[in-house]
Write a structure and sequence with these properties.
This protein is α/β, with parallel strands linked by helices. The protein has a single domain (5-236), classed as Rossmann fold (3-Layer(aba) Sandwich). Helices cover 35% and strands 29% of the residues. It is built from 7 helices and 10 strands. The chain has helices spanning 49-56, 79-89, 105-115, 120-133, 149-161, 179-196, 230-236; strands at 5-18, 21-34, 38-42, 64-69, 72-73, 90-93, 167-171, 199-203, 215-220, 223-229. The protein has a 6-stranded mixed beta sheet with strand order 6-7-8-3-9-10. A 4-stranded antiparallel beta sheet has the order 2-1-4-5, with helices on one face. Helix 3 (105-115) runs parallel beside helix 5 (149-161) and helix 4 crosses helix 5 (149-161). It is globular and about 50 Å long.
C-alpha cells in the first residue's frame, strides 16, 4: 500500500450550541489516513464519530484545527470550490441508503455524474456498467423499493463509486443489514477499494466487521484514544 497521506487532520475542535447549552463534540482530534486504506472509526454513541467524518467530508467547519484532503485545506476553498471538490473527490455511503424512490436503480446510481454535468445517457450507461460490478445488472430499471436491504446498499455503493472518488465516507454501512448481508457488503467494498485504490473511512458500531479494516481508530468523548491495526484489534477481541 502506498503510504501517501490522503486525509490529514490536526487539532480539530467542534462545539454545538442549542438553547443556551454548549456541547463539545470534538476536543482536538489528530488523524492521518493513507491513500487506499480501509480505515474504521469506532466508539460509543455520542463520542463524536459522525461529527468528525462530517469535518473530513467538508460538510462541517471546525471551530479550531485544520483538515487537508489531497493536500487541499477546506479553509482555503470558496463555497463553490468546496462543492466542486466534494462532487469529484468524495463519495458517501449512508446508514439509511438515501435512495430516491421515484427514480430507477440506474438513475439513482447516475446522480453523481449528472450533478457534474455529464450527459444523462452517458451517465446511465456508466451506472449500468458499475451495477454489473455489484451484481445488480438485472435490477437497473427497478425502483429501489423492490430491492432487499442488502441490494439497496449495493446500489448505494455503486452510486458512491461511479465518479471514481479518491475518498469514500461511510456512516454505519452495515447497521441496517443482517450479518450475512453485512459481510457481503464489506467484502464488496474492500474488493472495490483494492481494485480502484479508493480510500474508505468507515464509522461503525459493528465489531463483526473489524477484521476488514487495515487500521481502527477508537474514539471516546471527542478524542481518538488509540489507533491499532486489524491484527491488534482482532487479538484483543
Amino acid at each position: 500500500m502506498s503510504q501517501s497521506i490522503i486525509v490529514e487532520c490536526r487539532g480539530i475542535k467542534k462545539t454545538f450550541e442549542s438553547g443556551g447549552t454548549i456541547t463539545t463534540a470534538l476536543r482536538g482530534v489528530d488523524l492521518s489516513v493513507n491513500q487506499g486504506e480501509f480505515f474504521m472509526l469506532v466508539g460509543p454513541s455520542g463520542c463524536g464519530k459522525t461529527t468528525f467524518i462530517s469535518v473530513i467530508a467538508g460538510i462541517l467547519t471546525p471551530d479550531e484545527g485544520v483538515c487537508h484532503v489531497h493536500n487541499k485545506s477546506y479553509a482555503d476553498l470558496s463555497k463553490k470550490a468546496l462543492l466542486s471538490f466534494r462532487s469529484k473527490e468524495i463519495g458517501f455511503i449512508f446508514q439509511a441508503f438515501n435512495l430516491i424512490p421515484s427514480l430507477s436503480v440506474a438513475e439513482n446510481v447516475a446522480i453523481p455524474l449528472i450533478i457534474q454535468g455529464h450527459p444523462t445517457e452517458k451517465a446511465l450507461g456508466q451506472a449500468r456498467t458499475i451495477l454489473m460490478d455489484v451484481g445488480l445488472q438485472d435490477k437497473t430499471e427497478m425502483p429501489p423499493s423492490r430491492l432487499s436491504g442488502g441490494q439497496q446498499q449495493r446500489v448505494a455503493i455503486a452510486r458512491a463509486l461511479i465518479h471514481s472518488p479518491s475518498l469514500v465516507i461511510c456512516d454505519e454501512p452495515t447497521s441496517a443489514l443482517d450479518h450475512e448481508s453485512g459481510q457481503m457488503i464489506l467484502t464488496l467494498m474492500k474488493e472495490m477499494s483494492r481494485r480502484v485504490r479508493t480510500t474508505f473511512v468507515i464509522v461503525t458500531h459493528d465489531p463483526r466487521i473489524f477484521t476488514y479494516a487495515d487500521r481502527i481508530a477508537h474514539m471516546d468523548d471527542g478524542r481518538i484514544t488509540k489507533i491499532e491495526t486489524q491484527e491488534e484489534s482482532h487479538h484483543v477481541l
